[in-house]
Design brief:
Elements lengths: L1 E6 L4 H11 L4 E7 L10 H7 L4 E4 L3 H13 L3 E4 L6 H13 L4 E3 L5 H14 L4 E8 L9 H11 L22 E2 L5 E6 L5 E9 L2 E9 L6 H13 L3 E3 L7
Parallel strand pairs: 1-2, 1-3, 3-4, 4-5, 5-11, 6-8
Antiparallel strand pairs: 6-9, 7-8, 9-10
Length: about 250
């Protein structure tokens, strides 16, 4: 039985994760961690002192995830991270901590199978198009922009070529930010924050005479749970460092 703790247990994603873990016959929800809520520990440290945690799942906030992850990896607690907002330097440091402490760590910008396939399809298409941009759309309570999914998608596409602005003329923004943010391999990322959305992303490829759009929409948080449970099972069995659920779907 895998003893699982959920950090951010009182949030919308956290509640879904707690339910998914509770209903899984191979797992036991050993601790709920959050700053508010019923039957919760108020810190990872407090839960760690009282519970034998095998794997911690983190769905908290960008401002707290880095310190949460460092505590886990420095105390031999395997961790599955669904919280976005980590930068490249922080991810590298967590990778080093995971390897040095021989403690498993899996970071997934998105746990939806459909969203991961969307990223993988975008990587495939990137070989055949010289121009591409990403539009990501989320609810207006999301604190970080662009989304972790958009960043991971751009990183995967950038493995195909050095620039996706072939033939673009010199640009002048009369309103700052109107062209979005420039990411890996010059891929523009546009972030929309709006009530009514949960999580959507569209990758647009263009060439002379044609446009290819690859889009994924999440409408219910339950779509993430199979990916979360897959990540927990993997990281429980192995002590590797993984960035992106696509590495488990190959």
């Amino acid at each position: 039985m895998i003893k699982v703790a959920v950090c951010g247990a009182s949030g919308r994603m956290g509640k879904e994760v707690c339910l998914a873990v509770t209903n899984n016959p191979l797992m036991e929800l050993i601790a709920k961690i959050d700053i508010t809520g019923e039957d919760v520990y108020n810190s990872i440290e407090q839960a760690h002192k009282n519970c034998p945690i095998d794997v911690l799942i983190d769905f908290t906030q960008p401002k707290s995830i880095f310190e949460n992850a460092k505590y886990c990896l420095n105390n031999n607690i395997k961790i599955v991270i669904g919280t976005t907002g980590l930068n490249d330097d922080q991810i590298k440091e967590l990778k080093d901590l995971s390897k040095n402490n021989n403690t498993g760590c899996l970071i997934a910008p998105n746990f939806s199978t459909g969203a991961v396939l969307m990223m993988m399809f975008a990587k495939m298409a990137a070989k055949y198009f010289d121009n591409a941009e990403i539009i990501e759309l989320h609810h207006n309570q999301k604190k970080d922009a662009p989304s972790g999914t958009a960043i991971k998608t751009a990183q995967m596409m950038a493995e195909a070529k050095g620039s996706f602005k072939t033939g673009n003329c010199p640009e002048t923004e009369t309103i700052k930010g109107s062209r979005g943010g420039t990411s890996y391999s010059d891929i523009q990322i546009h972030s929309v924050r709006m009530p009514g959305f949960m999580a959507s992303q569209e990758v647009i490829f263009g060439s002379n005479g044609q446009v290819l759009k690859i889009r994924h929409d999440s409408t219910d948080r339950k779509c993430y749970m199979d990916g979360v449970l897959l990540a927990v099972k993997h990281i429980y069995e192995y002590n590797d460092f993984i960035y992106g659920l696509d590495n488990l779907l190959k």
